[in-house]
Every structure is written in structure tokens, then in C-alpha cells.
Write a structure and sequence with these properties.
Layout: E1 14-23, E2 27-36, E3 39-50, E4 53-62, H1 68-81
Antiparallel strand pairs: 1-2, 2-3, 3-4
Length: 89
């Protein structure tokens, strides 16, 4: 079961489910399904750990209207066009 400890969203949201795009000891980027008194939403978040606390860092937005097929196609095109491969840390 996921909770706000897994995905530290605002207290106005209840976490329904989440998917980590990237998770390290100091960074989380995730797609999170949430529910509030205004209804359900799917949001993109980026958290950065500052000290011992997770803080939202630049990104906490609804993504339900995004066309992920188009996004995938553009990213794939840019990767090929600009010779960008998988990055290794």
C-alpha cells in the first residue's frame, strides 16, 4: 500500500498509487494518482531531499491532458536527430 511517506504530496491529497520514474536517496520523480475533495487526478512530481525532509522541487502538476504518445514520439525523434543515447551516471 502506498502512502504519503512513499510520495510526500500535500496534505490535501490522498495518494492512490504511484510510479517512480527515478528514485535516489535525494531525488524522486514520479507519476502519482491522487484524490482530494475536488476529485481524482494524475500528477507529475519531483521531490528533492533537503536535510531530512522531502520538498517539492519545481514540479507538481496535473498531466491528465498530456498526449504521451506525442511526447514519446518527439523524445524518440530528438534522441535520434541529436544522437542522444541512454545516459549512465
Amino acid at each position: 500500500m502506498v502512502n504519503s511517506e512513499d510520495y510526500p504530496v500535500s496534505d490535501i491529497f490522498k495518494v492512490l498509487e504511484g510510479f517512480d520514474i527515478l528514485r535516489t536517496e535525494t531525488l524522486i520523480v514520479a507519476v502519482v494518482a491522487v484524490e482530494s475533495d475536488k476529485g481524482k487526478d494524475v500528477r507529475l512530481y519531483r521531490w528533492q531531499k533537503r536535510g531530512e525532509e522531502w520538498k517539492v522541487d519545481l514540479c507538481r502538476m496535473s498531466i491528465v491532458r498530456w498526449n504521451f504518445t506525442d511526447i514519446y514520439n518527439i523524445v524518440s525523434e530528438f534522441k535520434q536527430k541529436y544522437n542522444v543515447g541512454d545516459l549512465v551516471d
